[in-house]
Amino acid sequence: MAQERVLKPLVWVGSAKRDFDAFPARGKDDMGFALYLAQRGERHSHAKTLRGAGDAAIMEILEDHRSGTYRTVCTIRFDTAVYVLHVFQKKSKSGIATPKSDMKLIEQRLRDAKQLHEESENE
């Protein structure tokens, strides 16, 4: 008998859900599937470790669309949930690097996610 995988819940940090909802429909479908796989403990082919984050448990999901490149950053660091930290359209003119302002926001939201996780563990 095959073992069923338990889906970790998604926890949206800050404006991540609202930003995700503003994506084009096709981008949302593809990113939604990638997040679903993360909830199952798997990794989508469009998901990779976020460069410069210093933590392999922070994933970046990339989706190219005719209107631009969209990114969803989440962490799989915690046992009980997948935290979606930041969702944005990449507009940087400086190559593939994630802009510093977005990296700072991701770092802040990771701290927020850690606090949310600790609070949920204490309930």
Task: Provide a descriptive summary of the structure in words.
The protein is 36% helix and 25% strand. It has 123 residues and is an alpha+beta fold. The chain has a single domain (10-122), classed as RelE-like (YaeB-like fold), CATH 3.30.2310.20. A 5-stranded mixed β-sheet has the order 1-5-4-3-2, with helices on both faces. The chain starts with 9 loop residues before the first strand and ends with a helix. The relative contact order is 0.19.
Question: Could you write a compact summary of the structure shown?
Answer:
The chain is α+β, with helices and mostly antiparallel strands and 123 residues long. The chain has helices at residues 16-21, 25-39, 100-122; strands at 10-12, 47-49, 58-65, 68-75, 82-90. The chain is built from three helices and five strands; from the N terminus they run βααββββα.
Search tags:
123 residues, 5-stranded mixed sheet, 25% strand, 3 helices, YaeB-like fold, alpha+beta
* CATH third-tier fold name: YaeB-like fold
Q: Which regions contain 5 or more consecutive residues with pLDDT less than 50?
A: none
Name the CATH class: Alpha Beta
State the major sheet: 5 strands, mixed
Query: How far apart are the termini?
Result: 34 Å
Helix-strand string: EHHEEEEH
The shape is globular
Q: What's the arrangement of strands in the largest beta sheet? A: 1-5-4-3-2
Q: What is the percentage of strand-forming residues?
A: 25-35%
Which architecture does the CATH hierarchy give at level 2? 2-Layer Sandwich
| Secondary structure category | alpha+beta
Q: Provide the gyration radius in Å.
A: 14 Å
Relative helix content: 25-40%
Mean pLDDT across every amino acid position: 88
Q: Count the DSSP helices.
A: 3
Number of strands: 5
Number of domains: 1
CATH superfamily: RelE-like
